[in-house]
Amino acid sequence: QAISNKEISKEFKEYDQNLAAYFTENNVTYLDYAFDERISDEFFFDALHMNKSGRSIFTDLFANDLLEILP
Q1: Which residues are within 8 A (CB) of 32 and not within 5 positions of it... i.e. 6 or more apart?
Q2: What is the per-residue pLDDT for 12?
Q3: What secondary structure, in 3-state letters, does the chain show?
Q4: Could you report the per-residue pLDDT of 5-27, keeping only the tens digit for each?
Q5: What sign for the dihedral angle of Cα 70, 58, 48, 17?
């Protein structure tokens, strides 16, 4: 069963924030989906792996985000 955003540890949230800050400071684009509300628990078949529906939806989200940032 998937881990919901509510269950993600404080340490991971701090890590994610530090990583985002590092990338910003170094002018690196960071596409962070860790807390993206468009990706719900129903898209996972366990804590780490997306199911078929989740993979399809995430692929579309990721592709659209890339199209917005690539020249």
Answers
A1: 16, 20
A2: 83
A3: CCCCHHHCCHHHHHHHHHHHHHHHHCCCCCCCCCCCCCCCHHHECCCCCECHHHHHHHHHHHHHHHHHHCC
A4: 556 677 888 898 999 999 999 99
A5: positive
